[in-house]
Structure prediction request, 982 residues.
Amino acid sequence: MGLVAGKKLFSIMALCAMIGLLLLPIAVSLPSLAMGADAPDAVKKDGDAKVEKGRDVYYKTEGIVVGAPAPKTVDGPRDYPRYNFESRVLLWFANQQHLYYGSFVLAVPIFCMVIEFMGVVTKDRVMGKRYDQLAYDFIKISLTAYSLTAILGGILIFTFLTLYPAFFGYLSSIFRPVMHIYALMFVAESGTLYIYYYGWDKMKEGFLKWIHLSMSVILNVIGTLLMFLANSWIGFMMSPAGVDEQGRYLGNIWHVIHTALWNPLNVHRILGNMAFGGGVVAAYAAYKFLASKTDEDRAHYDWMGYIAMALGVAFLIPLPFAGYWLMREVYAYRQQMGITLMGGLLAWLFIIQATMIGILFLSTNYYLWQALGRMRGAEKYQRYIKYLVFVLCCGYLVFITPHTIVMTPAELKAMGGQQHPVLGNYGVMSAKNGGINVIITTTILSFVWYMRGNKVSTVSWSKFGNIFMGTFFGCAYFNIIGLAVLGYYIPANVRVGLSVPQVATTLSCLFFMFALNSFMMKGAKQMGPIEWGKISARSQYALIMLATAFTWMMGLMGYIRSSVRLFWHVNEIMRDNSPWAYTHTVGFAANMISFNVLFFWISILFVFWLGSLGIKKAPVEAKAGVLGGAPQPAGGH
Amino acid sequence: MKALMSVAALIGVIGILLLTGMILDIVPSNTVRLVEGYMPMQVLFELTLFVAGFTGLSYMLGTMGMAFPRFWQGIAFWCFILLYLKFRVYPPIPFSVRAMYGTVSLIAVFMWVSANEEDWKKFKQPIMNILDAQSGANKLLRYAYLVLLPVLIGGFSYNAMVPKSEEPIELRTVHPAPPASTKVHGKTYTLQTSQNPYRVNLEGKFDQEYSNANIVEQGMGRLMKPNANPWDKDAKGYLKYVREGGEIFFQNCHFCHGDNLNGRGLHAFAFNPIPANFTDPGTIAQLQETFIFWRVAKGGIGLPNEGFPWASVMPPWEQHLTVDEIWKVILFEYWHTGYYPRTWD
Prediction:
């Protein structure tokens, strides 16, 4: 009894410690303590005569100048010290690797939180233990990756300091308080992560488990805030605010953080991290599945891959919409930035991006169709897959059609001009919105089929339900395509707004159809168990493809986002005068991204291997239900 | 079901015969026309019909005991898509886009034939038969492939590497990124916020909705709206300025951009690339009026570094036209094409 009370006390203290760690940086960031907020008062004390006012480049408010102007750099060893190599490429490499690992270690604790929660609330105790073990395995992998993230962060800062001292000096002078808070948040994240991990065994039952679960919430709040702060730096570089035209800080740190693109970047990155994390874990499971020697292992890793994929795709579905919002804000902030991205210099990279997005959805659908093969009774859906393939590929073809076509002069002449009467219509936003929404809606349909693969609804209204679902999907396709066509006949500002009903249609399919399907499948007759492990090897390659495409696309989008500043360190404030202020060719960028992807995968395999050295064996009772008992995973089962 | 599949099969057969006829020049290529303005949806619709047709055909052959092997179904469908893109769509699709479409089609075929184990087994059976080479014919084929495949790959490699005399691909940016502001005739215009001063209603006030309501109808006819004829001598406000813009256009621009604004003027084919086609939804319909103002004023040589690589020989019209004339000609271009300029509100 005393031992239990002691554990409870320990757990509550640990939770309090976490909350304290979370609140500490916030307390430090209060205006009275922040250095940036002190400065205006200090200036005032020196006498009003010395006060110089400046106008915020974005908020257009007046503020007291408290910072130095952005340095006007010159090409030379003072501002751009270098090795006999392109400094920008070194920075690119360090930055990208840090981002990959950072995304992974921020995403995995969110997965752990979700999976641990599922383990706690599920009524099947064997299943609950399996979920718990899975979450524990995830966090263990993440722990090794966490150390590597910190090391890569250090490498990144040293790279900045040694190769771009003038730029980094300026950035840190603006973000001085934010950087300190960031460092404190990092301490808080580390402390919380270790308490969460090492407290796992001590807090595995009853009330203590709920305390442990609460810890994961705090861990993720800290992680998310940490990312938001880092996003404020890149947001400032793209769309500066809180400084005047010369780049002088005006004393309002919130303006500097809350730039035009900060919020869209935050949302986009959260979703992106989650989708990426899901992809990486799914690829890990796929690799382990393919290397498995026993049916038991195959069943376990098949299940693990499915869970990771489902979580990743849950965040992949809204990701294009968040990206669309980001682009809309980019256009609203600076038209030329938007045009450089989507119609100008970087337009071809966007076509590559569209291709990668399409691959993500194709891989997901393919995996789900393969997964139907491990269910008895799913044959009735398999015969219709060819139609889904057709719809999916039509959407994909429209989605990847370039606006700026690569062609020889002979082809140009044969075409009779730059614009093609068919391709020209597919190459614009209206068609592309239709294309991606068709792709996502089809993916939702595949999920619905998967969720009901081995079941037959027994509710009295099942016939009506099926007709309603079919009609709903039919209307959704009609609405999406109809709005895409209508987009050509209306003003641009209305056309941009059409994306809202298109997205609403797609999300309606997601929420209503999933909900309706769940109701229909309540108490459904099972045609047979899900035979975990009895899935084709092709499905696992699809998962690996999914993860690789995620990784490649992250690298690509990071490059695009960074390149859009063209020859500015800080857009329109601090010019990049290094010899590398030009935009790389598409081919060079693609090779560099591929190298980063390859390096990441090799290094993460090493991390996985390290993690596997000490993987805690699953308890006997947890493994008992692996085969035959057909554990019912997330997603409606 | 059978009746439905029979109709589908009939469609499939007719489609195949028509396409074959067009490829072999037996059937005139305009027998079933791709209608301008509706082409994008027509192409998708035709492909849908073909898929339905092939499904029906496959079903009917199966019921007659003449099932077409899955392996050949996959190969034939892919070839069909390649031929359709090459011979059906006019003007010809550049190779780079056909290559993209061809790859996606190949992936689609793979996804279809490997969607379940049974289909996958059926598909790979002929390949496995040749690899196993249990019969004499298969043995012979295996040897043939052993020789032919390297020769084929070698041929492709040779073809890719051999020096060619054709002009190289010239990449360019269709919409060069504009600057934040531009100075024309001594006055600075902010591109994000400036407005066309002639987009006004009858009271002379800026009115986007009024002008939008008076443009010609989109589509093939490009009909004028009732009571919205700029060449009416009583036309006032927006319509009057459209007429003035039209006069400026026909005095200066139509030689290159064409009297239908489709980029096919008298001199158009002296340039490479030919001038912009304003009737295409990918040109002025995507842009703010201020962007057009900047492009017209500064021409090709005034394009900034951000717009690189570009290829435009348009003269800097600020040297020949006043600011008012530039705004009016832009007004006319939007009116004539039936497009609305991009706005941000």
